[in-house]
Specification:
There is one protein chain. With 140 residues, the chain is mostly helical. Among the domains are: 7-47; 62-108. It contains six helices and no strands. α1 (7-18) runs antiparallel to α2 (23-30). The protein is elongated, with a radius of gyration of 29 Å.
């Protein structure tokens, strides 16, 4: 991911434009885009500072408010699935994706299966065996 331009370059661009050079010429002189120069000058006019806005950061999960409920539900039913937890949360007004819910549960140390585990079949094969090379079923 690209990084913001340095404050030193930003100050030089602003000083150059303030000295009378056009925005387009300043962009060519410093090998930056015209839109960068325009937006930089708008930022300086609005805030008085050349520093970029916050880049990246930590986003707080809306599931933090439901941590106690999630721990309780998992403790009550150890086989509960992520989809079932998702339904319980949506009943309380919190919509979330299965991936976000799985990440949050992993942070809590509570991992869930994607679906209920079913006992293996005693009668039928659960997966076909691959054909062997040169077997009677192959053409050739």
């Amino acid at each position: 991911m690209p990084r913001p331009y340095s404050n030193d370059l930003r100050r030089k661009v602003v000083d150059t434009v303030r000295s009378g050079v056009s925005r387009r010429q300043a962009a060519g002189l410093f090998k930056v885009s015209v839109s960068f120069v325009i937006k930089l000058l708008q930022r300086v006019q609005a805030t008085g500072d050349v520093s970029p806005a916050q880049f990246g950061g930590y986003k707080v999960s809306p599931l933090v408010a439901h941590e106690a409920d999630l721990r309780c539900w998992v403790a009550e039913r150890s086989e509960i699935t992520i989809a079932e937890l998702q339904v319980l949360l949506s009943d309380r007004g919190t919509r979330t994706s299965p991936a976000a819910l799985a990440r949050f549960l992993a942070k809590l140390g509570l991992t869930r299966k994607k679906r209920r585990q079913e006992p293996p079949s005693k009668r039928a094969k659960t997966s076909p065996r691959p054909a062997r090379h040169g077997s009677a079923g192959s053409a050739g």
